[in-house]
Design goal:
24% strand; five-stranded mixed beta sheet; 301 residues; 15 strands; Arc Repressor Mutant, subunit A; alpha/beta; D-Maltodextrin-Binding Protein, domain 2; 9 helices
Length: 301
Amino acid sequence: MDRITAARVFVSIAERGSMIAAADALDMSRAMVTRYLAAMEAWAGARLLHRSTRRLSLTDAGDVTLARCRRMLEVADDMAVAAGADADTPHGLLRITCSQALAQAELLGAVGAFLQRYPRTSVDLQMSNRAVNLIEERIDLALRVTNTLEPNLIARQLGVCASVVCAAPSYLARQGTPTLPQDLAGHNCLTYTYFGKSLWQFTDASGEKQSVPVSGNLSANEDFILLKAVEQGAGIALQPLYSAAPLIREGKLVALLPGYTPLSMGIYGIYSSRQQMPPALRAMLDLLLTWFESQHRRGLS
């Protein structure tokens, strides 16, 4: 039997967790799926799946074979693309992950522009703040706002994320307005779970840097949650300017400490390999670089 098809069937079974789901996805009969799986196990010389009444799971040999099948299918797909006259034209599905706040404030507009420019592409956008395994979760691009990238990651800086200390008028009416970074120690500061939880950093007009320990009664792993809490008068937060700027313009939030600039962070695109980068991923990275530069010039990020 066709080993490429057998590999494709095995990958589909592994990803969907059942032979019925794989048959439906591949528009193939269950009997044919069973035959291809048997051919794949004969080729591998090992049992690839644990079969139970609830769900199929991979054996140790299945884990190894799955990785090899994916590599083989990538090569096979690359061969088909190379034969086309428009091999360099962006096409296919891009799976992207980023935080909800970044997606709402910036990425949705960029993705819309990308899809209009490259009609043969599609995007699967997943909102998450956790660090993902790009290979295991089949993510093409992860966007992260940070100043502490792990050294083993392949990343490209796409922009700069400016920040602003802000609070609702209702909170300031109750608790007063801080005029110096040190004043924040006496306020309820809402913090981000993963970084900058207890130390906010500023640069004053003379270029001198200051670090201020802060604390409060709410922390979260998503900027969007903190922004809503601040809008409701729960406390003071250090927010990405791209998220807070619309509320500041509407008067729902007040930007604080105008003489002090909070530490900026980098916006990075993280991907799995620089080799044989798909045209769609390369085009998305180039578009995002231009997009974030434009937004920064307009003072939105």
